């Protein structure tokens, strides 16, 4: 996925992923997702009271934090609390958000306070990070925690009465490769997706204390007492021929697929991936005109009574 922000204290976490090594990749994704996220941030901030407190849980490198700062600035300010468990991620998000907050400081009186909190969601309660918030945003965070329903319950606890929880989970997996690359067998993209889905299932099973989710995210929100439960999806669409940022993202995305699920691929697919990632090969992804980025992210919303 383009926008994956995760968090934990330890460099190597329970899900086995060293998030600090993914910093450059997340920054790249933030840049490509920026326009779509601005629209989402404005939509989420619109119903909030004046000068609200917003909690961005698992803020990653701060792509959504910047969008939230801009949306809050435009309506008179507020407080943004950033939470992540990887210090490098949290630092990146904090400086990005703070520079957005002071961007028009000489003319505007709107001030958004940005407060970073280093914390591990698997062991700490979000309500302790900021007290009740009028909006809690958590994107692609919960599915890395052992008990996902308990994690959502913790997020609900951090929402003030009448406030909103916005849970960005699921959608349509990002596509970035054409059906036939002229290398290996056609349909590599679908087989990569299958391998990654298999890896994800194994990753969930191997998290210590892992508990299966009883159903879809909307039913979880409703079961936890949230009202007006609904969802919307937003598109990230960078068509071919791509700008170089999209090519670079595609190279890193394919490397990530290879890293997590490469051994689940047929040897001929592994060979095709090796060629696509070789800068000396004519098939190299970083120079192709037929790569793109197309994905849909879903945001599940609920309001606290």
UniProtKB/TrEMBL annotation:
<keyword id="KW-0808">Transferase</keyword>
<dbReference type="InterPro" id="IPR029063">
    <property type="entry name" value="SAM-dependent_MTases_sf"/>
</dbReference>
<dbReference type="InterPro" id="IPR013217">
    <property type="entry name" value="Methyltransf_12"/>
</dbReference>
<dbReference type="Pfam" id="PF08242">
    <property type="entry name" value="Methyltransf_12"/>
</dbReference>
<dbReference type="GO" id="GO:0032259">
    <property type="term" value="P:methylation"/>
</dbReference>
<protein>
    <submittedName>
        <fullName>Class I SAM-dependent methyltransferase</fullName>
    </submittedName>
</protein>
<keyword id="KW-0489">Methyltransferase</keyword>
<feature type="domain" description="Methyltransferase type 12">
    <location>
        <begin position="55"/>
        <end position="165"/>
    </location>
</feature>
<dbReference type="GO" id="GO:0008168">
    <property type="term" value="F:methyltransferase activity"/>
</dbReference>
């Amino acid at each position: 996925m383009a926008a994956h922000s995760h968090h934990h204290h330890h460099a190597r976490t329970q899900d086995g992923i060293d998030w600090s090594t993914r910093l450059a990749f997340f920054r790249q994704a933030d840049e490509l997702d920026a326009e779509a996220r601005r629209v989402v941030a404005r939509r989420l901030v619109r119903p909030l009271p004046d000068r609200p407190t917003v909690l961005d849980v698992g803020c990653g490198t701060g792509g959504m934090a910047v969008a939230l700062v801009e949306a809050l600035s435009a309506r008179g300010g507020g407080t943004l609390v950033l939470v992540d468990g990887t210090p490098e991620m949290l630092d990146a998000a904090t400086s990005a958000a703070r520079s957005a907050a002071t961007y028009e400081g000489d003319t505007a009186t709107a001030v958004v306070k940005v407060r970073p909190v280093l914390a591990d969601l698997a062991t700490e309660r979000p309500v302790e990070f900021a007290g009740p918030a009028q909006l809690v945003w958590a994107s692609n965070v919960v599915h890395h925690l052992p008990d996902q329903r308990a994690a959502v319950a913790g997020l609900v606890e951090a929402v003030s009465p009448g406030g909103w929880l916005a849970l960005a989970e699921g959608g349509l997996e990002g596509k970035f490769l054409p059906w036939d690359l002229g290398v290996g067998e056609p349909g590599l993209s679908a087989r990569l997706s299958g391998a990654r889905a298999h890896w994800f299932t194994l990753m969930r099973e191997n998290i210590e204390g892992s508990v299966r989710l009883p159903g879809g995210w909307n039913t979880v929100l409703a079961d936890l007492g949230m009202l007006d439960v609904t969802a919307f999806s937003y598109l990230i669409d960078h068509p071919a021929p791509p700008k170089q940022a999209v090519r670079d993202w595609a190279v890193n995305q394919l490397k990530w697929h290879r890293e997590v699920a490469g051994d689940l691929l047929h040897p001929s697919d592994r060979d095709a991936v090796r060629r696509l990632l070789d800068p000396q090969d004519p098939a190299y992804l970083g120079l192709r005109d037929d790569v793109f980025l197309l994905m849909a992210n879903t945001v599940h919303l609920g309001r606290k009574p």
